[in-house]
Amino acid sequence: MHIAFIGLGNMGAPMARNLLKAGHTLTVFDLNAAAVASLCSEGAAAADSARKAVAEADFVITMLPAAAHVRSAYLGTDGVLAGVRPGVPLVDSSTIDPATVRELAAAAEAHGNALADAPVSGGTVGAQAGTLTFMVGASEALFAQVRPVLAGMGRNLVHCGGTGTGQVAKICNNLILGISMIGVSEAMALGVKLGIDANVLAGIVNTSTGRCWASDTCNPWPGVIETAPAGRGYSGGFGADLMLKDLGLATDAARSVKQPLFLGALAQQVYQAVSHAGDGQLDFSGVIRQYLSAADKESQQ
Ligand code: NAD
């Protein structure tokens, strides 16, 4: 199939590479010319606008940072809707708010195209390995149409419901994740301060009712889980600034339906403090540093 892929960043580039490996023909576009050149050296064709990238395409995928970028990539004068043929399915895999998805889907429908939201989990490691989970908001018919292409980039393809529900699933999951990482950090820092060994405490938690992904897979105390970012200075993993963005999406969506979000709003402020402290590029488990004195941080080294 001839696919237009727009947005070749940390996630988009490896996803596009997997589509090439799956035997598809790709035309790619990114504002960053180096990202385009890299994909072209592996067999993709280059376009110098989204409009030109989609002109001959049978399928369109976008993977962009935030709603403003997605909006301009679809609705701009050189955007997707200015160039795509009616009937071609459109998939946006960026993490954005459900309201923007529904607005773009309406604009696409007026042009004769169906748009699915398909945000992902699995991070850059999953993007490279082709093992992403796709949370898809689409009609049954559109899901059936996009599924074979998404299968080239992911392992779990979940139909969440109608347009926008993929984003709903994504932001609700990350709401839990952001809050639970703060809870585990708070408890680990308190326990160590009160005199228990971090490994003993984590061992108890991970065989007790406090167990969760933040405690047993990505534990924020260095060395507790060998493969966790905490053991390598919180590098790699899922950046605190991306978590901050996702909690912003959750609090905005909650406001739109007047749904209380007590802990989500507080968690957003905590990650804002992480970013303010200069740790926004670190893995979000670095939030534990908010609970450590300078001396505590020194003794962790
Ligand atoms: P990124 O910043 O690495 O890449 C985004 C790319 O989009 C960049 O190459 C940029 O030049 C390009 N771009 C921006 N505006 C554009 C436009 N108008 N037209 C064409 N190209 C444009 O971001 P990423 O890490 O690849 O993340 C993409 C999306 O996936 C985000 O919404 C993010 O929240 C989500 N996500 C990221 C991860 C992760 O671990 N990085 C995990 C899950 C979901």
TrEMBL record:
The lineage of its organism: Bacteria, Pseudomonadati, Pseudomonadota, Betaproteobacteria, Burkholderiales. GO terms for biological process: L-valine catabolic process. The gene is mmsB. Residues 3-161 form the 6-phosphogluconate dehydrogenase NADP-binding domain. One of its GO terms (molecular function) is 3-hydroxyisobutyrate dehydrogenase activity. PANTHER family: 3-HYDROXYISOBUTYRATE DEHYDROGENASE, MITOCHONDRIAL, 3-HYDROXYISOBUTYRATE DEHYDROGENASE-RELATED. Belongs to the HIBADH-related family. The keyword NAD applies. It is an enzyme of class 1 (oxidoreductase). Keywords: Branched-chain amino acid catabolism, NAD, Oxidoreductase. The active site is at K170. Its EC number is 1.1.1.31. This is 3-hydroxyisobutyrate dehydrogenase. NCBIfam families: HIBADH (TIGR01692). It comes from the Bacteria. Pathway: Amino-acid degradation; L-valine degradation. It comes from Cupriavidus taiwanensis (strain DSM 17343 / BCRC 17206 / CCUG 44338 / CIP 107171 / LMG 19424 / R1). The keyword Metal-binding does not apply. It catalyses: 3-hydroxy-2-methylpropanoate + NAD(+) = 2-methyl-3-oxopropanoate + NADH + H(+). Residues 164-290 form the 3-hydroxyisobutyrate dehydrogenase-like NAD-binding domain.
